Amino acid sequence: MNGEHKQRYREKYTNAKQKGVKFFPDIIYKDLLVAFGLFILLIGLAVFVGVPNEPKADPNDTSYIPRPEWYFLFLFQLLKYFPGQIEWIGTAVIPGLAVLALFLLPFIDRNPYRHWSKRKLALGIMGTVVVGIVVLTLLAAFTTPPQPEAAVANTLREQIALGEELYALHCVECHGIEGEGGEIKGVPGLEGVTLKPINDQDVMYPFTDETLYNIIAMGQPLQGMPPFGRAFGGPLSPTEIEAIVAFMRYTWDDRVELPEEETVAAAMPTLKEGEVPSYDVHVAPIFKRYCVSCHVPGKKNNNYLMRTYEEVMTTGDHAPNIIPGDLGSNLIRMVHREEIEAGGPMPPTKALKPELVEILERWVLGGAPETAEQAAQASAKGAPLPTAAAPTEMP
Ligand code: HEC
Ligand code: HEC
Fold first, then answer.
1. Ligand 2 pocket: which of 294, 314, 353 to mutate (most atoms within 8 A of CB)
2. Nearest to 254 by CA among 181, 196, 201
3. What are phi and psi of 80, to 5 degrees?
4. What is the pLDDT of residues 343-367, one digit of tens each?
5. Sign (positive/negative) of CA torsion 218, 207, 180, 363?
6. For the CA of 245, the nearest atom of ligand 1
7. How far apart are the first and last CA of the chain?
8. CA distance 15 to 8
9. Atom 16 of ligand 2 has which residue's CA nearest to it?
10. Distance from C-alpha of 115 to C-alpha of 126, rounded to nearest angstrom
11. Hey, whose CA ends up nearest to atom 17 of ligand 1?
């Protein structure tokens, strides 16, 4: 910089200073505004978008490939070029020099100009660093092998649904659709072996969730059940095994019920005053959750099957168990915990919630329609309400 240049620069500097935008409070104020805006944006993202859960960690799982967050990938990649003994160059020396250079930058680059075309040194250094980081990050991203696809379930309901799917995929061939057991057919090595049910109190009561988890993860190799946990050479992640356990527990253990906010009633559309429920929308989910585990072929149930509308309306030693319009129907009396000719209270161990009993009553009174359309027609005619007609005690 020559004398004349210096002179002009000084003048410009004093002018600018007199025009006067102060660091405090003017610049600070702007910075605060922007920082506050970003803060609100982050809170918004956290509340309304969130971060999806990764699968649960499993210390036994050797197939997991650990990787740093994306913004550290470049450092991670750098490490790869300094293996073993010289790792310290990648971990300490290079990052250390980079930070040191940042500290020294004001002393190295004493160029007074602000226009970019006159700041080649600073821009050159910064450019190289940025390009380096981008390239290293990309290299790391492209050389990361894909993780085995992992299932994630965020709510209990999702967990149970996932478990149901996985059970159907991995367990049914030996334990049956509902865990009912029986003779195994078509499984090499176990042909003709008969399994006890795993859906009853004999298994559900003594086995804790942890025990069930371990049985599934490690299998029962001596009796012929293969291991399913990844750590033992099987196909399932911890998240997936937990989902199967949740499915078993909430479907087969008559002592547990879904927490209030997850109940069947909450999952189905609420009934309006005078609206008749339908089998498809309201009743089938109740039967599926509370009755079907016993009311399938091969169980003690007086041959009353409850898997379809057809079966519900026609089967059973004391059929029909549902007479449209009649609250004296066997099924209604039994869910009211009466002991009648057809049998004891249903379900045997635990009363259905009153809301669910009311849905069943309204359904029977409304003519026990199968589809939502039929139910809508029944509603239009004006359905009688159970409270008016319900017999509390049968003679
Ligand atoms: C290849 C056939 C086979 C498959 C597939 C299979 N199991 Fe088993 N399982 C068995 C055998 C055999 C036993 C031992 C039966 C016994 O002890 O009465 C068993 C035992 C069990 C037990 C303990 C029962 C008890 O009374 O001790 C549970 C629980 C169980 N299995 C759950 C599962 C689940 C859940 C799956 C699916 C992830 C599954 N099994 C897949 C064959 C299988
Ligand atoms: C734990 C097993 C189990 C569950 C769960 C269960 N039942 Fe039953 N059900 C039985 C048995 C066993 C019988 C035979 C009668 C008896 O022993 O009381 C039966 C009989 C019946 C009958 C008489 C059938 C006939 O024609 O004789 C009806 C109706 C019935 N159950 C309805 C239901 C309903 C509705 C639910 C669900 C809300 C339900 N059951 C849940 C075991 C069960």
1. 294
2. 201
3. -60, -25
4. 989 887 678 888 889 999 999 999 9
5. negative
6. 35
7. 112
8. 11
9. 343
10. 15
11. 223
Q: Is the CB of 325 under 6 A from ligand 2?
A: no
Rounded Cα distance, 80 and 390, in Å: 76
Answer yes or no: is the C-beta of 195 below 6 A from any ligand 1 atom. yes
Contacts of 96 (CB under 8 A, 6+ apart): none
In tens digits, what is the pLDDT along the chain, a chain of 395 residues? 578 888 888 888 888 778 777 888 889 999 999 999 999 999 999 999 888 777 677 676 666 777 888 899 999 999 889 988 999 998 899 999 989 988 988 888 888 888 888 888 888 888 998 999 999 999 998 888 776 656 677 788 888 888 988 887 888 888 987 888 888 877 788 888 899 999 999 999 999 999 999 999 999 989 899 999 988 889 898 889 999 999 999 989 988 887 765 655 455 567 888 889 999 989 988 887 778 767 888 778 899 999 899 999 999 999 999 999 999 999 999 999 999 999 989 887 678 888 889 999 999 999 999 999 999 998 887 756 555 444 444 43
Alpha carbon 216 to its chain's center: 20
Neighbouring residues of 108: CB distance < 8 A, sequence distance ≥ 6: 101, 121
Where on the phi/psi map is residue 256: left (φ > 0), alpha (ψ -120 to 50), or beta?
beta
Report the nearest atom of ligand 2 relative to the CA of 315. Answer: 26
Q: What is the pLDDT of residues 76-88, one digit of tens each?
A: 999 889 988 999 9
Backbone region of residue 305 per phi and psi (left: phi > 0; alpha: psi in -120 to 50; beta: other values): beta
Return the CA Rg of the chain. Answer: 35
Pocket test for ligand 2, best of 201, 304, 305 (most atoms within 8 A of CB): 304
Q: Are 90 and 82 in contact (CB under 8 A)?
A: yes
For residue 242, the CA-to-ligand 1 centroid distance in Å is 16
Mutating to test ligand 2, I would choose from 204, 264, 346, 364 the residue with most ligand atoms within 8 A of its C-beta, which is: 346
